Amino acid sequence: MKLKRELGFWAVFCIAAGAMISSGLFVLPGMAYKIAGPAAVLSYALAALMVIPALLAKSELATAMPRSGGSYFFVERSMGALPGTLAGLAGWFSIALKSAFAMVGIGAFVQLLWPEAGASEWVIRGVAVVCCAVFAVLNVLSVKVAGRVQVALVAALLGVLGVFVVGGGPHVRQHPNFDNFIASGWEAVFATAGLVFVSFGGLTKIAGVAGEVHDPGRNIPRAMILSWVVVSLLYVAAVLVVVGVTDGKKLAAGPYGSLTPVSLAARQFLGRGGDALLAGAAVMAFVTTGNSGILTASRSPLAMGRDGLLPPALSRVSARFGTPHVAILMTGGMMIVMIALLNIRDLVKVASTMMIILFLLENVAVLIMRGSGLRNYRPSFHMPLRPWLPLAGIALYGFLIASMTLQMGRLPLVTTAVFVLAAVLWYVLYVRRRATRESALVYMVRSVVAKDIYRPALEAELREIAIERDGITHDRFDRLVHACPVVDLPGSPPAAEALGLVADRLAPLVGVDRDGLFESLMERERQSSTVIQPGVAIPHIIVPGQNVFALVLVRCREGVRFAGHDEPVRVAFVLAGSADERNFHLRALMAVGQIVQGRDFARRWADAPDAEQLRDILLLSERSRDA
């Protein structure tokens, strides 16, 4: 059973925005100030810029392959089963771990709002477990309801943060905290940018539920870019207010700086009420992160179960609710175990490292998919400045992984290495026997070293993805294209020779003598030319019988020479139908007319390597279709 496409633009925007606004804003500014001083504001701006390659890469991949699973699906289809296994498990665990940390954050801030609960760590964990269970059930019941809850929470959160920024702005002015702005040095600025960079990682979570987004070709890139703009401006403005209204010593107090910097700042100009208001906003922020985390993390095992990389039970979709209930409940259960038993803070460091590795792999995936020559890789959004921007992203994220390893010690590196080894072991023992799909990378290599032209199964899959993405419902003309003969003519033959070859293929389809059919085609040309525009002809005739209609596609790269036309014909649609099919005959002529007017049609027709690619051009064309 397929997942329903029920997430609209605002739900997509709120999933991406809500996944970003959490600890990066409500916890990290104090730590950032302790390291970089007032230049922490600049560090947040740099971190926002660093996420651009990942944002643009994932926007392209998600519009070309809007399938649930996100990073797993992109990496597996571009690089193969082993990298796909690593990416799928890394994406699953990293999002689940960071979402578990958000649940713990809810518990911590609830304790601040409700001091009578006591200071027990188990109270915090208990609140986190309850919240995790609630959001898991919510996501099982309906992705649309989960999306609506996310919209409401993010709208309220943005409203509170807007009050904070607008109310605190006039109090910033020329605060002494901004004296000696870069006193800690540029090294500290870049190190802090790497620290807070992970705050923007939630931006790309939406690709995990791309298979449930309505009109993904438009909604995914627009919502992701808008959420990046809004949240980046909000981050920089909020940190500017935090630094500009708070005593520097209080902001940097403790081994990690203040752990409630926004609430501390709000108290300066909104009083105790502001402190409580921002603490409530922090709870909402962690709620949105946790909710979107369960929503998106569960789609990796769903997609891997469908492809045979995990047990197929994980790919089950509830017939009643239309949601992947097994994957959601397993993800929620895993998060509850982590909350109850593990040191979440240390594991989040590992999750951050894995997230950046995924960013790196997605930039590699764009380069491979673009360089593969797969004709049906048809993203609605194209990453600009290829190959330089993806290459810059690969170098940048490699640098961030190295710098984070230096900052956070060996734990993330060692834990990540153990995780990779475990994933490789899983691939060897379980996946390898089931992995039969050919990746874009293998196709690209084989196309270079082999002389034979072949069509990988990935082309057919990409075609079906594009058809579903664009909402194309095939009509009778499409079905005709699926089954019709294709004649690919060499050289530059005269029209009579070309139509003779067409008659050979057409005669058995319409039950008419080959010579009589050829004469009818030639007579039609003598009456009036069927060349409708330079390089395109639609020879069409009436044949005896009832309920008869056939199509032959013709491609001649050098062009067929039609009398009276200087421009040779490189594209021909030959139609033959009985008199009772006159209405469909007219609709077919209209369909052809719309197809040949499509963007770059002549170039794509000439460049197509085989008959199936010629069919795909027609099947994926933008035209009016019968209901």
Question: What features would you describe in this structure?
Answer:
The chain is mainly alpha-helical and 627 residues long. The chain folds into two domains: 402 residues, Amino acid/polyamine transporter I (Up-down Bundle), CATH 1.20.1740; 146 residues, Mannitol-specific EII, Chain A (3-Layer(aba) Sandwich). Strands 1, 2, 3, 4, 5 and 6 form a six-stranded mixed beta sheet that branches. The longest helix is centred in the middle third of the chain and has 37 residues. The mean pLDDT is 85.
Keywords:
Mannitol-specific EII, Chain A; Amino acid/polyamine transporter I; 627 residues; 2 domains; elongated; 6 strands; mainly alpha; single chain; 5% strand; six-stranded mixed beta sheet
Overall structural class, as computed from helix and strand content, comes to mainly alpha
CATH class of the largest domain: Mainly Alpha
Tell the overall outline.
elongated
- Described by its quaternary structure, the protein is single chain
Fill in the CATH topology of the largest domain: Amino acid/polyamine transporter I
In percent, how helical is the residue content?
Answer: 55-70%
* Fourth-level CATH superfamily of the largest domain: Amino acid/polyamine transporter I
So, CATH architecture of the largest domain? Up-down Bundle
- Count of DSSP H/I helices: 26
Number of domains: 2
Distance between the termini: 24 Å
The overall pLDDT, averaged over residues, is 85
